[in-house]
């Protein structure tokens, strides 16, 4: 493995209108699968359904805005500068509860195929076939399972 530097301005970006803009900051390919780092710009009132990463730990870094997160059935409020660690196998979800877009970064460790999952979501969005059902099916192929509605 070798050191890696990426440029924020040149990060590959996927825009899900009215929901989330996802930036790929560091891929699993770049880290030999050790981790992957992403950033979400989350519109007000938006967040994913409750889900589990069966084989990955996830760490959130809340950068801008106001968020709530539910981790293992417990709710927390997050402000800029706050951090949350979600061990693999833990049910969790987050939501932007502010009036403006919020921003958070997150690390998956190990990377596994999480990037491919997000790209598959976007391909389904572009094809007009993205739904809660298709997201659930895609997720299962990549070690993630949706287990409940959004917050």
Automatic annotation (TrEMBL):
It comes from the Bacteria. InterPro entries: Cupin_2, QDO-like, RmlC-like_jellyroll, RmlC_Cupin_sf. Residues 41-104 form the Cupin type-2 domain. This is Cupin type-2 domain-containing protein. It comes from Neolewinella marina.
């Amino acid at each position: 493995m070798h050191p890696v530097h990426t440029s924020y301005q040149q990060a590959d970006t996927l825009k899900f209108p009215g929901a989330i803009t996802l930036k790929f900051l560091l891929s699993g390919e770049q880290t030999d699968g050790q981790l992957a780092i992403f950033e979400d710009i989350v519109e007000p009132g938006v967040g994913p359904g409750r889900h589990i990463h069966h084989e990955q730990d996830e760490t959130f870094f809340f950068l801008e805005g106001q968020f709530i997160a539910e981790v293992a059935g417990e709710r927390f409020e997050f402000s800029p500068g706050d951090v949350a660690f979600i061990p693999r196998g833990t049910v969790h979800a987050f939501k932007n509860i502010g009036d403006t877009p919020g921003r958070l970064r997150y690390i998956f460790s190990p990377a596994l195929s999480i990037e491919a999952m997000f790209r598959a979501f976007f391909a389904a969005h572009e094809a007009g076939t993205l739904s809660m059902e298709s997201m659930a099916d895609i997720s299962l192929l990549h070690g993630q399972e949706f287990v409940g509605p959004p917050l």
